[in-house]
Amino acid sequence: DSFLRFLGDKARGPLQGIADADVQKFRDSLKRTVSSGTVNTYLKVIRVAFNRAVKNNLVDRNPASGVDNVDRHDRHQRRPFTLGEFKTLFANAAGEWRTMMANGLYTGLRLSDCANLTAANLDLVAAQYTLTEKKTQRTRILPIAKPLLEYLMTLQLGDDPRAPLCPTLYGKP
Q: Taking the complete model, does pTM exceed 0.70, yes or no?
């Protein structure tokens, strides 16, 4: 979609009208707004689409094949928070963010999955969560550690099983 928007009116023309220079200009425009890894992912998708077009005899050659990936010099190394850093963050967090952080720490779930937890996912008696992860669509049953369980017991969840644990963060990526 981003590539088609970038192409503008040219996107409505024949595939043969798309040149290496168009793909390169798109790559260069992306470099100003997203990481090098994201740029390279976009290029990979475009290459795959054009390879399919070549295979189906819609174009003679792939205009993206001659466009180089972006160097990954801006790649950053992620590291987990230290326990001290986490304690500082948790002490300064309020309300739903405390719930998000506690769930993330003790379950290892992605933030979007933590934000979308509801009372229906939570079984306090069995001390477990049952959920389908958004990214992988994999259903998981996760035991709830005692400190998290004690924290969850303090929440006012009400009777609605659809009630999110983090109402203002629910549904957000």
A: no
